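Please fill in the sequence for the structure shown.

STRUCTURE ENCODING:
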């Protein structure tokens, strides 16, 4: 079960990133060109928000069965906070992702409540960009030393 959730969570990140980048790019272009906020703009921001919420559900499932989190809990919070890998999986990753998802959700809601098209584009552009930055910072990219996961498949790393 852990492996299926981990691979799903890792693979879905590419869809999430593509949808967020698409919504952000379309919003900046719409904001600068003065174009009308149409159904495609609404759907793109909706699908981006839905994808991050699905990613959150997969991540929460992983959080409660993760060997990293279980090990951190067994060693105690005080001791786990001293270990950078344990701290990342126990606190930093989930906290950063929650901030990003919250910003994206706020942006989606604010864009729906905005009355003019430029304001709708601006809300999506600003909040989705901030949310994406929070997400990008807390993704365990392959280049992040011991935290890194594979680009397309997940591999287990040993830690001491």
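FILLED IN BY: designer on duty
SEQUENCE:
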């Amino acid at each position: 079960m852990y492996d299926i959730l981990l691979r799903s969570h890792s693979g879905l990140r590419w869809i999430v990133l593509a949808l967020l980048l698409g919504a952000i790019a379309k919003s900046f272009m719409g904001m600068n060109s003065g174009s009308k906020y149409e159904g495609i703009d609404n759907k793109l921001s909706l699908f981006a928000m839905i994808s991050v919420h699905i990613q959150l559900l997969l991540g929460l499932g992983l959080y409660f069965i993760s060997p990293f989190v279980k090990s951190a809990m067994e060693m105690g919070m005080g001791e786990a906070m001293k270990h950078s890998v344990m701290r990342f999986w126990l606190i930093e990753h989930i906290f950063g992702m929650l901030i990003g998802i919250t910003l994206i959700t706020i942006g989606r809601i604010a864009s729906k409540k905005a009355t003019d098209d430029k304001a709708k584009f601006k809300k999506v552009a600003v909040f989705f960009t901030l949310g994406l930055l929070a997400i990008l910072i807390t993704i365990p990219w392959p280049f992040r030393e011991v935290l890194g996961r594979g680009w397309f498949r997940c591999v287990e790393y040993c830690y001491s």
